[in-house]
């Protein structure tokens, strides 16, 4: 099986972020925003998983919009958001991957990326964590970094602002005007990755 082939089986799509209303609008929570958009597209609401450590949405991507024959169901997906803080995301992700029998190459993490400008993104398979605590925790718990990532750019903090303070702050008023389009595009990238493979997703969305 190659990462560029359209494959069967369940996909686990993990939105990285911190739980609770305090963090909801933070740059660090872009993964939550994207999985919310995907949940809306599936027409489903979040529910607590039996593990008690994550919320999930289960469904299938619409076939006609994702390279499959109209009227036939698309790939099966499980959207997930950890109920733990970012630096402890790996445990809940590992539990879900085990429960749904999802191999690492069918796991997609959506996360904020400092080294990419706002309103741009990258889709990739594998790699390091680049100082991102959510990715670091996932690598540790899964025992590998060979999962897919949709890296949504937030840019570097302005001036001398600390990185920690920057990622745990709300998007600026200017960014919030564009944010819905960023979220929508990231959701499109995930659908393309699942239904058409890594290469097609990179060609269309890596900027």
Outline the fold blueprint:
Elements: E1 11-15, H1 30-42, E2 47-48, E3 54-60, E4 76-82, H2 90-100, E5 107-113, E6 121-125, H3 133-142, E7 148-153, H4 163-167, H5 173-196, H6 198-205
Helix pairs in contact: 1-5, 2-3, 5-6
- What is the 3D shape? globular
Tell me the helix content: 25-40%
Strand content: 15-25%
Low-confidence stretches: 1-7
The beta-strand count equals 7
Adjacency order of strands in the biggest sheet: 2-3-4-1-5-7-6
How far is the first residue's CA from the last residue's CA? 27 Å
How does the major sheet shape up? 7 strands, mixed
Determine the structural class based on helices, strands and strand pairing: alpha/beta
Would you give an account of this structure?
The protein is of the alpha/beta class and 207 residues long. Helices cover 34% and strands 19% of the residues. The chain contains six helices and seven strands. It has helices at residues 30-42, 90-100, 133-142, 163-167, 173-196, 198-205; strands spanning 11-15, 47-48, 54-60, 76-82, 107-113, 121-125, 148-153. A hairpin with a 5-residue loop joins strand 2 (47-48) and strand 3 (54-60). The longest helix is centred in the last third of the chain and has 24 residues, at 173-196.
């Amino acid at each position: 099986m190659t990462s560029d082939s359209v494959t069967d089986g369940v996909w686990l799509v993990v939105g990285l972020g911190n739980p609770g209303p305090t963090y909801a609008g933070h740059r660090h929570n872009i993964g939550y925003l994207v999985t919310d958009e995907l949940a809306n597209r599936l027409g489903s609401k979040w529910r607590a998983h039996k593990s008690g450590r994550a919320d999930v949405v289960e469904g299938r991507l619409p076939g006609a919009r994702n390279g499959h024959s109209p009227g036939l169901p698309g790939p099966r997906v499980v959207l997930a958001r950890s109920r733990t803080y970012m630096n402890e995301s790996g445990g809940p992700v590992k539990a879900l991957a085990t429960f749904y029998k999802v191999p690492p190459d069918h796991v997609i993490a959506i996360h904020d990326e400092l080294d990419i400008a706002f309103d741009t993104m990258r889709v990739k398979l594998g790699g390091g964590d680049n100082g991102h605590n959510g990715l670091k925790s996932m690598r540790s718990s899964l025992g590998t970094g060979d999962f897919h990532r949709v890296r949504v750019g937030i840019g570097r903090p302005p001036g001398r602002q600390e990185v920690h303070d920057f990622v745990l702050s709300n998007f600026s008023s200017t960014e919030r005007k564009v944010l819905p389009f960023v979220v929508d595009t990231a959701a499109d990238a995930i659908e393309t990755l699942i239904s058409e493979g890594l290469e097609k997703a990179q060609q269309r969305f890596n900027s």
